[in-house]
Structure formats: structure tokens, C-alpha cells
């Protein structure tokens, strides 16, 4: 007897004697058989079954939480509150024979579909309609033109994966949609250049000065501050120059104006370093104190920032100067000091400056306090706002109403059925002030995950799409904490269920699953993660997705595995399906799949082919020295094996030094081709490579694992005439 037949018998036993339905008996049995066939075909992951338990009625059953969610979506659409409400129920194998049968079948979740006003026959008819609709549903994915929201998602997910080419493609497509203003497109260009650390190119943007005169999103300000640090300040700090002399000689105030104070306490280390220099040069002791005492600042960070502020300076910041007026502070760009002075000594005449300062810095933490004081002045008729101030107060109201103070608050709010048009924007602007996901309790993580799933299936789905890169990044950061499992599972599910499974979405999935596996999962969680990945592979398997599959295999082989048998089975399934596309794959893909198959003892699955002498792209490597800098274990040996099936280089030389060494500098200088794995590297080592070899002569991988090296090398060879 097959497994499906056995499961069907077990579930029939849980239903009990269907004669209790009298005239409806046959319809109930047909309903069960029909939906079980749909379930066995993989079209649904839930069932609606009448169970012999208390309270009596139909129950929604599934093997996991996702199945419950999918089933609830369908039932709520077909039934609605006029027919039934869905109530969670607890599985009690010791109390009911039906529950014991469900437990045997692997069912872990159930909900009572409690009939309300409708007659039994009408409710049964609605259930029949729902199952019939699912049974005839076309499950084959159809190509669609991505929306501007999906293109924006792809743009930021590409940046998360450090894939500049894909990000540029998405940005070009966004321009063609006509849905974004010229200003917003400029902001995205800044995000692109900043994420790829192309600081000089960013500084040379023809519209940079226009941008500096307008209000900018916090993320853009963070990038521009990092640009100033890299292009104007860092080398002079390294030479021991004082903050005041750098500020004056580089004319930072006249060139960058209010940007220098646009964020009182930035989030990134580079922007904080610049802020320490600027605060010291401007004599803003309050801002420097806030910077040094900011949450998350380590003692090492504090020492470094103090050293930057104090080197070459005499005397220390003066405390005896008369206090400047709020208007003077605003003119000097000291927005944090403006807000603090207004809160400490509020005056109606200063309200305009304080409101503008909050809006310029987008600091939601101070917005509520400033708004309360200003409203008090207006209520007491001490302040009559003019048109511009009225508009600014409206913007301040919007900032306060939309502000959040924690991950759980944001996730709970976005998960409600109330539209929240600014959710993604608020997440980007305010998350730096929230407690890290790793600091939350297991219950708080579960609440946050439920909010994400609620938003994904509810009114705010577009906000989840727009914030998907942030959710992926935070999930990856929390991967080392076992309490982050529910949140990561929710984000993986959202990625898998994207209507347009573009290449950036698939790459983001790999990015997150790699972080999860590297964290050292327990066996049960590891197997679930494997099944998740295999489910996505079955959905996208095609010649176009082979590189994704190869990267997945690299990840599985590199990460620790508490279930070697489960990993072997997963690898065998991916390789087996890849073999179906063999005739349509490139020589590089043949080489990688063959090497992976040999590594797991399945080398006989693929044809053994000699290198093709007509493949001029790979022949360019014959007789050359290929350098590889990476901290990945076995990177050098794996790259050598895969290249051996394509060409005959003189040598493949690896280096994994974590600081600047003679061997590393020699490799950077002498290699004909140099692959630099910036994802697995130290800053000291990459700085040494940059000093010895310009970036345009380095090959930077964009995929995962050694497959990312091979893809980048192939792209480099195809794009040059060397």
C-alpha cells in the first residue's frame, strides 16, 4: 500500500462514521476524496475534514502553520463570517481517537470551522465550491511584467546580494515605468553607488549639489556621510591631522552644508567617524557626547571616536562660551542641538526652527516631544503658524503617528488589516533605534513573525515587498540566535511566495538560507530548511535556474549538517533534476555539476567530457596564474577542480591571510586574474589588495560559494578582449 493510501485511510478513521451526516453522507465523502486528491497532487497543503471530536464540526487541518494560513485564506474567501468563523484548536491525542489518528498522520495544527448563520447544506455547498475551484486551478506559472514595486524590490535585493549589474538593470527598468520622480530615481542611484562603495563616482554625480539642498531619506544621508568620510576625511585622519584643520582645509561646511548634521547620531561606523570629526570641529560637545553614549556603542568604538575627535586638538572642547541662540544653531546645521535646546527651554519664537530641525533629521524619537510643545503653544494662542509652518506641522504629525519603537510594534501594526502606506519607509528610517531582533524573547519573535505573515496575506502586502531587503538582512543578522527561527521562516516563506520569482528574489533566498545553515541548526530545523529549499527548487527548476541550484549545493556542502543523510538526499534530488537539462547547459555549468557530483559520490550521473578546445573564453586562462583571496575553506582546491575540466591554467593560488602580508601583496601584484571574495574577507586584507591592485583589475564574485567565483570569472572573460 502506498504512503498516500495509508494516510487517506488514517484520515478517514479520524472522520469517524459518516452515516451521522445522513442525507449528506455521500457529499461529505466525495468532498474528502476530492480534496485529498488535490492535496496528494501538491496543489494544497491543508484539508477541511469533519472530525469525530468535541466540539463537533468541520476542521481545517495541516502539517504546519503555513498550511493553516493558506487554508484560512481560501475558507475566509469562500465562506465569510455569514457562514463560519475559524477558531484555533489544540490537538489532544490522549483525549480523542481522531486526534490520535491525526498525530499519527503528521498533522500538527487544526482549527474549528464553526458554522454561524448558514444552514448545513449551504455551508457544505460553499466548501464544495472552494475545493472544486482549487482542483481546476492552473498551477503553471505564467510570465508577467514586473510592477514598479517588484522592480524596486529587485533593486534592493540585488544590493543586498552585492550584485551591481542586477541592481543597475532593475534601476534602468524602474526609469522606464515612469512611476518614480526624478528625485527618487536620484536617491536610488545614490543607494546603488553607496552599496557598491563607489565613493568617487558618487561624489562626481552632476546633481549632488542639488540633492544636498533638499530633504533626503535617512538611508541616503547615511550613504552620503560615508562618502564624505572616504573621499575627504579618512586619509587625513590616518595622517594624524586634527578635526579642525580637516574641517577647514576641506571646506566641509561650504561644500556639504546641512548634510554634515542631517543625522544627529548615524548608524554606520563610517558616518559616525565623520560625525565625531564634525562635532569636534564645530564645537558641538553635546552631539559628541550623544555619539559616544549612543546605544550599541562598544568601548572600542568609543575609544576610536574619541581619538578621532581629539587627535591634534588643543585645548579640549570649551564649555565656557555663551550659549548660541536656536536660530544660530540651526544656521550652523546643529540640528540635534536645536531640538535639545528647544525641549529644554521651549519658546514660541523658536518653534519654527525646532520643527524644521526634526524634519531635516527625520529623528522620530524627538518628534513627539517637539510636536507636543508646539501644539501647546497653538492651543494657548501663543503661536499662530503661517502657511509653511502649518505644512511642516502636518508632516510632523504624520511622522509621529507613523513612528514605532520596536520590531514587535512595527510587525504587529503592519500585520493588521488597516492600510499603512508608510510602513516600509518608517522601517528604513527608524529600525536603527530599535532593540536588535536577537535581543527579543521567543514570544516576541513569534509575534513579529505572525505580523509579517499577516501583512503578506493582508492589506499591507506591498509594504512587505518594499521592505523585503530589510527583512532579509535582519533575519540574516538574527540567524545566530535560535530565537530568530520563526522570523526567518516567515521571511523565507514570503520570498518563496513572491508572485514574480525573479533572480534577485532567488538570490536573496540563498543569502538567507546560507546564514541559517551556517548558524548550526538542530536536526529538526535543519530538515525543515532543506525541505523549504527543495520546495522552491521544484517550483523554479529550469535551465535558467541551474546557477541557483549550483549555488545551493555549494551552500549545503560548506555548511555544518546535523543530518548527513538528509543533506545527501537533497543534493541527489537537485543533481537528478539538473541532469534533465544537461544538453542546454554551458560548459561551465557542466564542470560545476560534475565536480559537485564527484564530491558526493555521484560522479557517474553526468557524462564525462573533455575540455572543448573551441571554447575560446576559457582557453584564455591556459598558462595563466589565477589568484583567489577568500576565507572560505577549500575555496582554492574546489576552484582548481572545476577549472581543470575547462582549461589548463599554470597555477591556481589561494590566500586567506586576515591582515596585509607579503604573500597577499605579491599575489595581488602578480596574478593574471585575481578573484577577491569580499563576502568572506577582512577589511585589512582587502585594503592591502586595493593598495596593490586597482579595483577594476579585481574580479568580485556576486553569487554564493565557489560557483559565484566561477560565474564572475566567466563574466569577466566574456566582457574583455584579453
Strand order of the largest sheet: 1-2-4-3
State the CATH class of the largest domain. Mainly Alpha
> Can you count the helices?
37
Overall 3D shape: flat
- What is the number of domains? 4
InterPro entries: DpdD-like
Description:
With 722 residues, this protein is mostly helical. The chain has 4 domains: 3-135, no CATH class; 326-402, no CATH class; 407-605, Leucine-rich Repeat Variant; 616-718, Glycoside hydrolase family 3 C-terminal domain (Rossmann fold, 3-Layer(aba) Sandwich). The chain is built from 37 helices and 7 strands. The strands form 2 sheets. A 4-stranded antiparallel β-sheet has the order 1-2-4-3. Helix 34 (635-644) links the parallel strand 5 (625-629) and strand 6. Residues 137-143 have low confidence and may be disordered.
Topology:
Layout: H1 3-15, H2 25-40, E1 46-51, E2 57-62, H3 65-78, E3 84-89, H4 97-104, E4 109-115, H5 120-135, H6 148-160, H7 164-177, H8 182-195, H9 199-203, H10 208-212, H11 218-238, H12 243-249, H13 252-256, H14 269-282, H15 285-292, H16 299-310, H17 326-331, H18 335-344, H19 351-361, H20 364-379, H21 387-402, H22 407-414, H23 423-430, H24 442-456, H25 461-466, H26 468-477, H27 485-496, H28 503-518, H29 523-540, H30 546-558, H31 564-579, H32 587-599, H33 616-619, E5 625-629, H34 635-644, E6 651-655, H35 662-670, E7 673-676, H36 683-692, H37 705-718
Parallel strand pairs: 5-6, 5-7
Antiparallel strand pairs: 1-2, 2-4, 3-4
Amino acid at each position: 500500500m502506498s504512503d498516500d493510501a495509508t494516510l487517506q485511510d488514517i484520515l478517514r478513521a479520524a472522520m469517524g462514521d459518516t452515516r451521522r451526516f445522513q442525507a449528506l453522507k455521500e457529499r461529505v465523502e466525495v468532498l474528502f476524496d476530492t480534496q485529498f486528491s488535490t492535496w496528494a497532487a501538491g496543489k494544497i497543503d491543508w484539508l477541511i475534514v469533519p472530525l469525530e471530536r468535541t466540539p463537533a464540526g468541520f476542521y481545517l487541518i495541516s502539517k504546519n502553520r503555513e498550511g493553516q494560513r493558506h487554508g484560512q485564506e481560501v475558507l475566509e474567501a469562500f465562506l465569510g463570517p455569514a457562514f463560519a468563523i475559524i477558531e484555533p484548536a489544540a490537538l489532544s491525542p490522549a483525549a480523542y481517537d481522531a486526534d490520535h489518528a491525526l498525530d499519527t498522520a503528521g498533522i500538527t495544527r487544526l482549527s474549528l470551522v464553526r458554522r454561524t448563520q448558514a444552514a448545513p447544506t449551504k455551508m457544505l455547498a460553499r466548501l464544495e465550491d472552494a475545493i472544486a475551484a482549487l482542483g481546476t486551478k492552473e498551477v503553471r506559472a505564467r510570465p508577467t511584467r514586473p510592477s514598479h514595486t517588484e522592480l524596486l524590490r529587485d533593486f534592493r535585493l540585488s544590493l543586498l546580494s552585492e550584485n551591481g549589474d542586477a541592481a543597475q538593470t532593475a534601476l534602468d527598468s524602474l526609469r522606464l515605468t515612469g512611476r518614480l520622480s526624478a528625485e527618487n530615481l536620484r536617491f536610488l542611484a545614490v543607494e546603488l553607488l553607496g552599496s557598491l562603495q563607489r565613493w568617487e563616482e558618487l561624489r562626481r554625480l552632476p546633481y549632488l549639489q542639488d540633492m544636498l539642498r533638499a530633504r533626503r531619506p535617512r538611508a541616503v544621508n547615511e550613504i552620503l556621510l560615508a562618502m564624505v568620510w572616504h573621499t575627504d576625511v579618512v586619509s587625513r585622519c590616518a595622517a594624524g591631522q586634527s578635526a579642525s584643520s580637516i574641517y577647514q582645509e576641506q571646506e566641509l561646511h561650504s561644500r556639504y552644508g546641512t548634510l554634515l548634521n542631517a543625522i544627529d547620531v548615524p548608524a554606520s561606523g563610517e558616518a559616525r567617524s565623520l560625525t565625531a570629526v564634525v562635532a569636534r570641529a564645530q564645537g558641538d560637545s553635546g552631539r559628541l557626547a550623544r555619539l559616544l553614549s549612543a546605544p550599541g556603542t562598544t568601548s572600542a568604538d568609543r575609544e576610536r571616536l574619541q581619538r578621532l575627535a581629539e587627535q591634534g586638538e588643543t585645548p579640549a572642547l570649551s564649555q565656557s562660551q555663551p550659549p548660541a541662540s536656536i536660530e544660530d544653531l540651526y544656521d550652523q546645521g546643529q540640528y540635534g542641538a536645536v531640538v535639545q535646546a528647544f525641549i529644554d527651554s521651549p519658546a514660541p519664537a523658536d518653534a519654527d526652527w525646532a520643527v524644521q530641525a526634526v524634519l531635516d533629521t527625520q529623528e522620530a524619537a524627538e518628534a513627539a516631544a517637539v510636536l507636543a510643545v508646539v501644539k501647546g503653544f497653538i492651543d494657548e494662542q501663543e503661536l499662530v503658524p503661517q502657511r509653511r509652518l502649518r505644512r511642516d506641522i502636518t508632516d510632523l504629525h504624520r511622522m509621529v503617528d507613523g513612528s514605532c519603537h520596536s520590531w514587535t510594534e512595527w510587525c504587529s501594526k503592519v500585520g493588521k488589516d488597516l492600510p499603512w502606506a508608510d510602513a516600509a519607509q518608517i522601517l528604513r528610517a527608524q529600525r536603527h533605534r530599535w532593540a536588535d531582533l536577537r535581543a527579543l524573547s521567543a514570544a516576541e519573535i513569534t509575534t513579529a513573525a505572525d505580523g509579517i505573515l499577516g501583512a503578506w496575506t493582508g492589506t499591507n502586502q506591498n509594504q512587505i515587498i518594499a521592505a523585503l531587503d530589510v527583512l532579509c538582512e535582519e533575519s540574516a543578522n538574527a540567524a545566530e540566535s535560535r530565537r530568530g527561527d520563526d522570523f526567518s521562516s516567515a521571511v523565507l516563506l514570503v520570498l518563496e511566495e513572491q508572485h514574480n520569482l525573479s533572480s534577485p528574489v532567488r538570490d536573496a533566498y540563498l543569502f538567507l538560507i546560507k546564514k541559517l545553515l551556517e548558524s548550526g541548526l538542530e536536526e529538526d530545523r535543519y530538515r525543515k530548511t532543506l525541505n523549504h529549499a527543495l520546495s522552491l527548487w521544484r517550483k523554479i527548476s529550469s535551465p535558467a535556474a541551474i546557477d541557483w541550484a549550483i549555488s545551493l549545493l555549494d551552500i549545503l556542502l560548506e555548511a555544518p549538517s546535523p543530518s548527513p543523510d538528509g543533506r545527501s538526499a537533497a543534493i541527489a534530488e537537485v543533481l537528478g533534476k539538473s541532469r534533465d537539462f544537461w544538453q542546454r547547459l554551458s560548459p561551465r555549468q557542466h564542470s560545476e555539476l560534475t565536480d559537485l557530483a564527484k564530491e558526493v559520490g555521484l560522479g557517474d550521473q553526468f557524462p564525462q567530457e573533455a575540455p572543448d578546445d573551441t571554447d575560446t573564453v576559457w582557453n584564455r586562462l591556459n598558462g595563466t596564474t589565477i589568484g583567489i583571496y577568500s576565507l572560505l575553506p577549500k575555496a582554492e582546491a574546489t576552484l582548481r577542480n572545476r577549472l581543470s575540466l575547462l582549461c589548463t591554467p599554470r597555477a591556481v593560488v589561494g590566500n586567506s591571510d586576515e591582515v596585509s602580508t607579503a604573500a597577499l601583496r605579491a599575489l595581488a601584484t602578480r596574478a593574471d586574474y585575481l578573484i577577491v571574495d569580499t563576502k568572506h574577507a577582512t577589511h585589512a586584507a582587502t585594503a592591502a589588495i586595493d593598495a596593490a591592485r586597482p579595483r577594476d583589475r579585481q574580479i568580485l564574485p556576486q553569487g554564493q560559494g565557489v560557483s559565484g567565483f566561477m560565474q564572475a570569472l566567466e563574466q569577466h572573460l566574456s566582457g574583455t578582449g584579453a
